[in-house]
Structures are given as C-alpha cells and as structure tokens.
Design brief:
This protein is an alpha+beta fold. Helix content is 35%, strand content 24%. The strands form five sheets. It has a six-stranded mixed beta sheet, with helices on both faces. Strands 1, 13, 14, 17 and 18 form a five-stranded antiparallel beta sheet that branches. α8 (232-245) packs parallel to α9 (263-273) and α9 (263-273) runs parallel beside α10.
Length: 418
C-alpha cells in the first residue's frame, strides 16, 4: 500500500512540474519568438508607456492595446507601421504620432532651417478632427497664394484629408520644386475655394529686422520672428544687437502667424529680453513641475510690445506668455492658437521616428494655454492684409503697438542708456 501511495505522489509531482513547465513556456515563448515587426510595435508601446503625458492613456488599458496590436501576424514593415498607427490612434492625440523614415528625416530638416514644399504649418482640430492651417510660413508659396491661419484643408490633390494623419497630409503637400499641388480650402464665412500652389524650396530665415521712426521721432526696432528653428535665437540676438547700435529706443516683436517650433528656442529667446524670472513651467503626468528660468542680463530693457494673432502657437505662446506674465511686454492683437503640449521625438530602431506628448506647459503665472491660448492686453481685430502691408498704415495691430509705445514717450526716451 505504501509503494502505491509513493507512485501516486510521484505522478502528481511530475504532473505539477509539467504544468509549471507548460505555463512557463507559454509565458516566455512570445518574448523570445517576436518577429522584427512585432519588436518595433513593442518598442513604440514601451516608449509611450514610459513617457506619455496622460497616465490613463485616454481611459483605456494600455497593456490591452499592446496585446491587441500583437495578436495578429505582422508579415511586413507596412503591416507593423499600420499596427503602430492604430495603437497610437487610440490615444486620441494628433500630436503623438508615428513617422516613417522619410517623414522622420523631413521633420528633422524642418526644424533645422530649410524645407521643400508649400510652406504650411498644420494641425488637427481637437474638436472637429479637421486638418487646419496653423500659419503659412512667411514668404512661402502658400503665404503668397493667400492661405490663412484657421483655414481648413478639405482635400489635397482631390484626396480627402478626413482620415489622413498630420504627417500623411504633409507628405502629400511636399514634392519636387516647381510642381503644383491643389488644395481645397474651407474658410469661415466663405465658400470652399481651390488653391493651386507651386512647390518651392523654403529657406526658413526666422528673423526680419528693421529700424523705423515713430511719428514722434522715436527710433523703433521692428522684429518679425517667423519660426522657432535651430537658428532663431542666434539670429534674433544678432538683430537686437544691431538695432541697439543703431539707437533703437523701443521694440515691436511680431509673432503673428508664427506656428512655433523648438521649445528650447522659445526659452532662449525669452532670456534675451529678461534679466530674471521664470519663463515656463512644464508638467508631466506625475504632476511634477520643472521650470526654465532667465538668468540675465537682458540684451535691452527698452519698452517692448508683442503682436499676436490666431496663428501664434506653441513656442510663440511660451515666449509671449513669459514676457507678459513677467511684465516685460504688452501683447496686442488677437487671442493665440492654444497649443500648450510638449512633444519629444524618439528615433526607432529601423530609422523611423515617434513624436510623443510628454508634458504640458504653463506660463509663469500658471496659466494653462492648451486649447485656451493667450489673451492680449489690448485686443485689436485685424482685417486681412497682404504681406507687403504688414507694418504699414493698413496694419491696425501694428499701429496700435506704435501708439502704446509713443504714449510712454518719456519712458521710451530713457531706454537702458546711461
């Protein structure tokens, strides 16, 4: 009887060991048997899992999203890219997006100072999902064709933009220099209109500067900043230095239709104008606040007015909010675009890229800009004007800025000179 019991126990132990081995094999097998395509999907999942701003991942189980993305065989790179895009789409965040190798290289070129295309900064409207113009790049083909901020792009070359990602839309608008692209535009209060735009190489010279004289005889430094690319801070510093040497006693900084760009460029430019103070707070998903500070000295303490409108977005809003909250500048124009999210760019193992919303930013007085924008100190609506009319009598916002500066003529005359 004892021998029989021993054999029964042995059989149970053996069965238990087999069960443990089978369970262990089921757990470990997928990890060791992942294909290259599945590994890429998992790589994206991990980056989002570690860094994404919303810790609820749009109120869903992010682990379940991964499981669903990997449950079907991925037999090609295109299939992997499709699985990644579907995975990211569940976040309902147009700024967190996958970039194939070509799109990733194009984005790097865009922020470095030069691109080829029509010259539009675009975004997806968070409420309607429609493709929307943030701003045309100054002097670009789109700008010359008359495309404006807040225009909605319905079709590109006859293809509806309804289901296109930002990068797919941008790719359709890029092409060889001299080639045409047709855009169907919807504008508030107007009929749909078709624009035929000739693609060109767009040099992103971020700064335009000029010394002007007000009707009261005050030397006025006019600065227009078109984009926050890698050159912007250095170019603006050169422009301020030159205008100071020429005797500028007050400044207008024109950020209208500036769609933003590099966060660091916005911070560095704020430091050109501030002796001290907080420039911006960043808030991640743990609620931890980081901050960027000015450490002076400023290049000038002369009076400053900043021009903003609906096309003023992202890094432009950081700069405008920092100088407004620190009492360094008055803002004139219209409420800004309202993009207060920060993305970080990750290079993936196959040369593609991933843009992930990692934080939001707040002004020094803890104003949340996202979807709200920044309200100017003086609201001045602006009728449509051409590029050539900027800074002229037809430019109502510019004229209002000049008026503010000349009303403080005694202060303007003092400037920062001994």
């Amino acid at each position: 009887m004892g021998l029989f019991v021993d054999k029964k126990v042995l059989r149970r132990v053996f069965s238990l060991l087999m069960a443990v081995w089978l369970v262990w094999g089921a757990i470990t097998q997928p990890a060791t048997a992942l294909t290259e395509e599945q590994k890429l999907v998992s790589e994206v999942w991990r980056i989002v899992n570690r860094n994404y701003l919303d810790e609820t991942f749009n109120h869903q189980s992010w682990a379940s999203v991964r499981q669903k993305a990997l449950e079907k065989p991925l037999k090609s790179q295109e299939a992997a890219y499709g699985a990644i895009q579907n995975m990211l789409k569940s976040l309902d965040d147009p700024f967190t997006r996958f970039l194939d190798p070509e799109q990733y290289r194009s984005l790097q070129v865009n922020t470095s100072g030069e691109l080829t295309g029509v010259g539009l900064q675009i975004a997806l409207d968070s409420q309607t999902g429609k493709l929307e113009v943030v701003a045309p790049i100054a002097g670009s083909p789109a700008d010359k064709a008359g495309i404006r901020p807040r225009d909605r792009i319905l079709k590109i070359e006859g293809v509806s933009t309804e289901n296109l990602t930002l990068d797919e839309a941008a790719a359709k608008m890029r092409g060889p220099i001299g080639s045409l692209v047709t855009l169907l535009i919807e504008r508030e209060g107007a009929d749909e209109q078709e624009f035929r735009v000739t693609r060109d190489r767009i040099a992103l010279n971020p700064v335009i500067s000029e010394l002007r004289v007000t009707p009261q005889g005050t030397p006025l430094g006019y600065l227009r900043l078109n984009q926050f690319n890698a050159n912007a801070s250095m170019e603006l510093a050169h422009a301020i230095n030159s205008l100071e040497k020429k005797g500028a006693a007050a400044y207008i900084l024109d950020l209208r239709n500036n769609p933003g760009g590099l966060l660091q460029a916005g911070i560095e430019i704020a430091r050109l104008w501030l002796d001290s103070g907080t420039i911006v707070y960043t808030v991640n998903r743990q609620g931890i606040q980081g901050s960027f500070e000015a450490f002076g000295p400023a290049m000038t303490s002369d009076p400053l007015v900043i021009l903003v409108n609906q096309g003023t977005a992202s890094a432009s809003e950081i700069l405008a909010g920092a100088l407004q909250d620190n009492g360094r500048a008055q803002l004139v124009g219209e409420t800004t675009f309202g993009k207060g999210l920060i993305q970080s760019l990750f290079e993936l193992s196959d040369g593609s890229g991933l843009a992930v919303t990692i934080a939001k930013y707040e002004t020094p007085q803890h104003r949340d800009i996202n979807k709200l924008g920044i309200k100017p100190d003086k609201i001045i609506p602006q009728d449509a004007i051409t590029r050539e009319q900027i800074g002229t009598e037809a430019d109502q916002q510019y004229q209002a800025a000049v008026e503010i500066l000349t009303k403080n003529q005694v202060v303007v005359g003092m400037g920062n000179r001994a």
